[in-house]
Amino acid sequence: MSEQNTLFEQIRSGGCLSYILGCAEKKVCVAIDPEQDKIEEYMGLAKAFSSRLLYAIDTHTHADHVSACKLLRHRVDAKVVMHRASDAPYVDIRVDDGDVIRCGQLEIRILHTPGHTEDSTCLLAGDRLFTGDTLLIGGCGRTDLPGGNAEKQYDSLRRLTALDDQIRVFPAHDYRQASSTIGDEKQNNVRMQIGSRGEFIRFMTSRHPPLPRKFELALEHNRTPIPGTQRGFGEGI
To answer: Which pLDDT does position 175 carry in this prediction?
Structure first.
């Protein structure tokens, strides 16, 4: 799909990054890694684009902020999309590696990239790659939280190095510049340059950063059902 026919907006909230992505021709869009505090902004952007929010997509179960996915599900009837490994009970569409979410003329391909969490995914839409916490600019997601696995993170990063160098990288977190490319990360990101699985595992497991400030609140919210609904599993694509 052409750039001029693509709706795109990056939303920053502290160190968190989320996105509106959509098809201008069909006037539909998705919210990627939406944060609860920004829910009015997502709805306002959809309105400004004269578009309907079809999907709310979390690239993984967040442990550092409260997801807006189930609120968008309630407020605008957006379908919540996450990987099958997610234990969030309000997911409508559970996806696997290689599945495609269609939003008008836009195709969003699912890449399962476990490591930061077991349900971590990257979303490839044209030349844009939404990497969640799998790949950050100059770094990668930590592997010491629930579902984390340094060996799987190594394999997921190796998978991303096989993508075209010109693909633009849009992570779920950053505290400096807002995007990068696969080529830039291969050249400048130390964690993508570690040559062996054993060395990467030693590097990741030797780090002991503090827990995210909203760790317990975020996991509690992001793993519980919408009030008044049944706990259950959404249909796969």
So the answer is: 65
Tell me whether residue 228 is in a domain: no
- Whether residue 78 is contained in a domain is answered as yes
Query: Would you say residue 227 lies in a domain?
Result: no
Sign of the alpha-carbon torsion through 155, 205, 57, 9: negative
- Residue 122's CB: how many other CB atoms inside 10 A? 24
Domain extent at residue 11: 3-210
Strand pairing category for 106-112 and 121-125: antiparallel
The pLDDT tens digits for 28-83 are 999 999 999 999 999 999 999 999 999 999 999 998 888 999 999 999 999 999 99
pTM: 0.86
CATH of the domain at 40: 3.60.15.10
Residue 219 lies in a domain: no
Q: What is the pLDDT of residues 149-197, one digit of tens each?
A: 999 999 999 999 999 999 999 999 876 667 899 999 999 999 999 989 9
Structural domain count of the chain: 1
